[in-house]
Amino acid sequence: MFKEILLPLDFEHENLSAQVVESALQLCHPEGRIHLLYVNPSRVHHAAAPFYSKELLEKQDEAIRAQLDEFMQTHIPDEHRGRLEVRHGVVYDTILARAKKLAVNLIIMPASRPGAETYLLGSNSSKVVRHADCAVLVVR
């Protein structure tokens, strides 16, 4: 059983969210907490990033935070609710940094089907698996 679990969610893979939460609830210690994290890579990897206004980014963050909050309220029992965070940066680096900061014992994350780009560069989940200081469960 794990006391601190981090779920880095990607709303592009909502079809895997139920499996991720189910796994977290099964593996969560009775006194454990489940933290939700969304990493927005748009400032880092998007060609139009220099043209994003601060107001647009703030609205985007608010919308994502509301979506995460609704997800938390719907899927995570009160006694297991941890932190809810929206961060900006390189996805795998941010996940690893937050996992370390929150002293999590387990990261559970969805994985997409590999495409040509992941064969060359590696997916976020594979980078997290290779570099995490804690256990990682990848749900496909």
TrEMBL record:
Q: Which Pfam families does the entry link to?
A: Usp (PF00582)
Q: Which domain of life is it from?
A: Bacteria
Query: Which InterPro entries does the UniProt entry name for this protein?
Result: Rossmann-like_a/b/a_fold, Universal_stress_UspA, UspA
UspA domain mapped to chain residues = 1-140
PANTHER family per the UniProt record, alphabetical: STRESS RESPONSE PROTEIN NHAX (PTHR46268), UNIVERSAL STRESS PROTEIN UP12 (PTHR46268:SF6)
Family assignment from sequence similarity: Belongs to the universal stress protein A family.
Name this polypeptide is given: Universal stress protein
Q: Write down the species.
A: Oceanimonas baumannii
